[in-house]
Design a protein that fits this description.
The protein is of the alpha/beta class and about 130 residues long. The protein has one helix and six strands. One of its GO terms (molecular function) is single-stranded telomeric DNA binding.
Length: about 130
């Protein structure tokens, strides 16, 4: 039986102990989309002004043809399912940056997000999963 995806908060991705290839699901806000590399830049706040804000780079190269351009607009909130991947060769990030890289398998709109409620719900879910694992 295939392993299910892990629901994580975006801020957990850069420091997660999961390994490359682990299936994950998270919510993020589009800050940039590079059409030449099909790479989305997602953060958990918009606008993100602090320098230490966690940043997730999501490759949508395999699914971009099926995506509506409105999903890729700056400020859009997205649900992302995919797998953690290694940093692409030659991709430069500062040493202090809290980043992670994901290959997306599916992306869909999150609509209007009440981030605090969402974060609380994820915390509750993760608490239940942790208790069930014991």
């Amino acid at each position: 039986m295939p392993e299910p995806s892990r629901l994580l908060k975006l801020e957990q991705l850069p420091s997660t102990t999961t390994t490359i290839g682990t299936k994950i699901r998270f919510l993020g806000c589009v800050h940039d989309y590079d059409t030449t590399t099909a790479l989305l830049t997602l953060r958990d706040h918009y606008p993100a002004t602090a320098k230490d804000v966690p940043t997730i780079f999501v490759s949508i190269d395999n699914i971009k043809d099926g995506l509506d351009h409105e999903l890729l607009a700056v400020g859009s909130w997205l649900n992302v399912m995919g797998a953690l991947r290694a940093r692409p060769q030659g991709f430069k990030v500062s040493r202090q940056a809290r980043v992670a890289f994901v290959d997306a398998t599916i992306v869909w709109s999150a609509g209007a997000v009440r981030l605090e409620r969402y974060q609380d719900a994820v915390d509750g879910y993760q608490g239940c999963v942790a208790r069930d694992a014991v």
